Model the fold of this input.
Amino acid sequence: MSQSTTQTAQGIPHEIERFNITFRIQHVLMFTTFLLLSFTGWGLKYAHEPQGVASWWIRVWGGAETAGIIHRIAGITMLLDFVWHVVYLFYLLGTKKMTFDLRTTIVPLPKDIFDVIKNYLYFFGLSKEKARYGKYSYAQKFDYWAVFWGMFIIGFSGFALAFPMLITPIVPKFTSGWIWELLSIMHSDEALLAIVFILFWHFYNEHLKPENFPMSWLWITGRMSVDTLKHHHPIEYEMLFPEEAKTEKKH
Amino acid sequence: MPYTKRLHVLAPLLLISCLLIPVPGFAQQQESANCLACHSSMKGRIKTVSGTVIELQVSAEKFAGSVHAALACTDCHMKYTDNPHSSPAGAVPQQVLAIASKISAKHPVDPVAAAACTKCHPDVYAKVLDSVHGRNITDRRQTDGALCLDCHGSAHYIVPVKNPQAKMSRKHQVETCGTCHGDKKIIEKYKLEENVMDSFQESFHGRKLHLGHTKVPVCASCHGAHDIKSKNDPTSPVFGNNRLQTCGKCHKGANEKFIPAITHKRPGPIPHYAEKGLMLLVIGVFAFIISHVLLEAFSDIRDAIFKKGREE
Done:
């Protein structure tokens, strides 16, 4: 992703662009549809309990029929958003606008596992240092790939459940006795996982953490201050500004 | 209490009670009023000769609100086998007697009264007699179901099926069928599918119904109503490929790979173990993220208190 050119007197910018407008729009689409899907789907998953609350909640969304339509439209929008994201990534890689680098990649690496261990040791007071991250910390990589997992498991099963007749041609005959049950279990269980994951992981890391509260504004501005970059993504900082990093180390 | 004072209390009470007694109009209503004069205020139950315990009270108010309000009591109660009243004059129609003779004398509703529905509903009654429910009453001479009143409730209080109060309304139908199909004794006695109630509740159909969806199917939508057949009967709408048409009523283009989607059987081993596997994954991820978030928050607080100054 491109870097900003707002230079300071010392030749180092105040902030860099971390996510361009396309990524930001994709993120907004992702979380609005996610919220709509969670709100309407939760009512259906827990339709029977606690008594009456789900019926009331679904009425808030316009009743069972309307909530179902909202759920389907949001689901299709989310899937299209996902496809757009993947196609866009291939476009960026194909035109060399994005290149692979171990320090900036979102691809999980063995280092991420060591980072987790290092941080747990730090939490327990067994290590004096926290892990140092490149462009993406393991927490962010986890956040990102969780969406992919969700798209394949929840997205596919949801599409199959919403449009069963479109899916039947590719359903092998021998699976028809259990495939629908399996699809609804996949959809429902993994949706619960996704919701709790977002509530704990994403909300804590991007909203509740003292340094981000009430939220990291990156999702609107796409920009991150170089100070924050230096502090939270030191390996990327050293890659982007090797001269400054060297001189700082000497001091 | 002096007499005049007592009169002051009794006179208004008398006036009110006179107002409460329905004003007799038509002959039929007058006749109903005669019966209801006692039966609307009687309390308690009695055991009939057939051994059934019956409620003596008939609520005049609820009867007046039912679809049968215009009928006279003796339109259905044409002949009594065991009661303190004398049976009304007039012959019982042949078609009623024909049905009544096939109903067990131990049936909780007097056979003639139970057969009387055919006087006004002959086509529907014929379907019931040919159904798995009707045959259980006539061929097998069972008393536990199901005839008209077992599903529709007392003929005194029947309201139109569109009325949510009706026992066969969308709102109450599943519950009504469940009085037998969710009853362990009856399930064992007739070797019925044992998981129908739970599996329906768990299904998308059942959940949406509970949430107030107006188009999802209830029991009769798939299984048929008065002409209901056993699921093993080739004429049942849920037998084999008959489901192509039955499911197709809502799911356009329902094909052979789609129709097994809804069943009342318990999930097979593949969905069962897949669910267990997914739950393990869910628990594993929860353990990781929750411990990570809590420990990180804890360490941040610890650092804020003890490491001030040393870290920026």
